[in-house]
Structure formats: C-alpha cells, structure tokens
Amino acid sequence: MRQQIARLTEQLLTLGGQDQSAPDVVKELQAQFELEFVDLQRESRLGEVQPRGSSRYGALLGDGDESAKPLEIHGQSIRNPYGILELQCIGRASSHMACSAADESSSRGRLAMPCGRRTLLALFFGHIITVSPSAHAGFPERPITLIVPFGPGGPADTFARIIGERMSQSLGQPIIIENMAGAGGTTGIARAAQARPDGYTIAIGHMGTHGSAPATHPNLKYDPIRDFAPIGLVAAAAIVVIARKDFPADTFQEFVAYVNAHQDKVTEAHGGVGSVSHTTCALLQWIMRTNTARVAYRGTGESMKDLVAGQVDFGCDQIVNVVPQVQAGSIKALAIASADRSPALKDVPTATEAGVPKFRVSAWQALFAPKNTPPEVVAALNDALDTALDDRHTRGRLMELGSVIPDKADRSPAALQALVQSEVARWIFVFRGISH
C-alpha cells in the first residue's frame, strides 16, 4: 500500500502544476484506498478543507472510525507545491478533537501513524491550506424557518407557535413561522421536502400530511416515509365532532339520525383533501353510511370561521382548535373520538358512549426536516423539542387545549419514523374500505 501511495504521489509531483491532470490521480487514490472527498452535507465528522492559491483539490483518508467526533484542525503552510500532509490528534477540546498538521514532504508516501482516536492522511495540491471546524458544529447560526402547511389559526399553526417559542430559547435563534396553505397541507410539506437539508427549514406535519396523504392524493409530490428526516413527535390531539351552534341536534345520537335523514341538505366542512379534518370525517361518514356535500377550505382555521358563522353544518376537528370555540358557545361539541373523555371538554361524551364505538381516532403533530439533514442537526432540533415538551409552561399551554404530551420514548426520530410508516399503511387500508 505504501508503494502504491508513493507511486501516485510521484505522479502528482511530476505534473508540475498541471492541475487539470490532478483529478485523475485523486480518483485512483480514492478508488484504491477509500479516500473520501470532504463533503459537508454528508461527512460532518470531517473538517472542511479549503485549499488556497492554485490548489483546487483535497482529499482525506480516514482509519474507518465512523464514531469519531468532528475535527477541529488549524491550517499550516507547506513548503512544496504538492505534498502529503499528516494530521495527528494531540488531545481533546470540549466536544472536538484538537489536531496538529505536519509537513511530510520529505517522506512522501508514508502512511499516517495511528494516534489516539483517529489519524488522517490528507493529500492536497497547493501552497497553503486551511481546515475549519465542521459546518454544523455551531448549529444553529441563524434563524430557522418552520413551515406550517395550513393558514393561521388552525391546530398545526397553534402547535407550531407554542413549541417554536420554547425551542427558539433552547437553540438561541428565532424560529420563524411560515404559513403555506393548500391541498390539505401537502403544498407546504412538498416545499419542505425540497428545502436545503441543513436544518434551517423544517416543517410541522401531522396524521394527514404524513399518514393519510398517500391514500388521498394519487399524485402526491413527496413520500412521507422516504423524503424526510423525522425530528420528533410534538403532541397528540383527540378528534371532536362539531356543529354550528344552531344545528337541530343536541346529542350525538340525534346528530347521526338527522344527518341520515337530510343527507341532501347537510354540509360538512373540512380543511382540504387529505387533512385531518377531511380524513376523520370521511371515516365518520363511512361509519354512519352517509354521503353529504363536503366543502373544502385552505385549512381548518378557515373552515372554523364559516362553521361559527353558520355557513356550514358540521365538521371534525382536533380538540386544540375546538376548545376555545366550544367554551365561548360559538359551536356545539357532540362527541369525542377517544377512549376517554377529555379534561378540556369534560361534558362531551365519547363516540363509544354515544353508541358509535368504531369512531375512535386521534391526530398527532410532529416536526420533520428534509432527508439527508445531518444527524447531529436533527439531534440538536430533537433536543430542543424535548426540552420544550418538558417545560412546565409549554406543557400547560398544550394540555389546556386538550393535547396529550408524548412520553420520552415516543419523542425520538426513530419512534416518529415508525409512526409514519404505520400510519401510511393504516390509512391506505381505511380508504380502500371507504371507496368500496
């Protein structure tokens, strides 16, 4: 191996400044010795190599220790136009390993000797190099955009603002809410999927956008399972069947009977095809064996306005969006689709109590980053979310709205990935049944 490196190094030296030939030699080094070009989007464990002068190429050869922490390396001058630069660990500084650089031009081709946790062999073309710390070591260094795929005032928007406020304190940077409504939330989520995977653009998704969407949108522009790096589960919320305040039914049993008898006159409002309000009410109507007119809105914030105004008759919505309106007497809450009554709406019976045990469903909200977001960035965001959910004030605000805070074990990226996979399969099965 040493002879091969020496031979290739000699070829570099004979190029005499003809940079256009250098890539061919580097490719051979890369193929034979598993050299890796520094790629900050993939290899955050390595420092960023920034050649200066006439140099344009750089590569690093590692000892295969994938668990090594990001390196903090200070640049050194080398005397030769081309040469082998050996980087050796000399200690640790905080979470990084401190390394020194030594000119090895006098013994070209010599392998880097083992030293502590990791030894790197760096091959550079040029006079001066500088190596900076990992690009993600200081994340975040600027504000983070949190895409809410619905308009202001809906459940997703409410969750995002409550969680985002506390997360920004932990991260030391503002979290800016960007509402992008349309197509049951899939417009905003598609935008998030295509964002740069650096952690500075994330999104809040839910049972609709990352669960039922593949079943309700045949031309969906993203894959909920493959196109995202899950950050963590935010909360779960019960689904409540609601109606305008003057709807001619005061109980859930009366509601079911009235809708069956007046299907041609009753209207259902939802937040867009594929949204939580759409999928859960589709399930309800399938159970009731009804098929009323359905009015789609750009989010449940808009549909709630028309329900309060009496322009539509009923809907299904997350409890977080319902509690303030029910308490104000603006709408009726007829049943809750959970196993138990909610402390936030103690007088509202469960669907099981009301004689419709099959209608049991809850909605969840979670944070997602684009796929290929570096694991350490996802970890930083997950830590901030975890801290927010443990914060007494934040928990209180969420629970006042009827939310269920996930346990620690359910907040991890892996747990969220498993949830998305199960939800996609579940809703494909449900909608197959509804369509037949």
Strand content: 15-25%
Order of helices and strands: HHEEEEEEEEHEHEHEHEHEHEHEEHHEH
CATH topology of the largest domain: D-Maltodextrin-Binding Protein, domain 2
State the assembly state of the protein chains: single chain
Distance between the termini: 66 Å
Low-confidence stretches: 12-22, 32-135
What's the number of structural domains? 2
User: Taking all residues together, what is the mean pLDDT?
Assistant: 77
Q: CATH H level of the largest domain: which superfamily? A: Bordetella uptake gene, domain 1
Structural class: alpha/beta
Counting DSSP E segments of at least 2 residues, the number of strands comes to 17
Helix content range:
25-40%
Alpha-carbon Rg, integer: 29 Å
Total helical elements = 12
Structure overview:
The protein is α/β, with parallel strands linked by helices and 436 residues long. It has two domains: 131 residues, no CATH class; 294 residues, D-Maltodextrin-Binding Protein, domain 2, CATH 3.40.190. 34% of the residues lie in helices and 24% in strands. The protein is built from twelve helices and 17 strands. The strands form three sheets. Strands 8, 9, 10, 11, 12, 13, 14, 15, 16 and 17 form a ten-stranded mixed beta sheet that branches. Strands 2-6-4-5-3 form a five-stranded mixed beta sheet. Helix 3 links the parallel strand 8 and strand 9. Helix 1 packs antiparallel against helix 2, helix 3 crosses helix 10 and helix 5 packs parallel to helix 12. The longest helix has 22 residues. The termini are far apart. About 26% of the residues have low confidence.
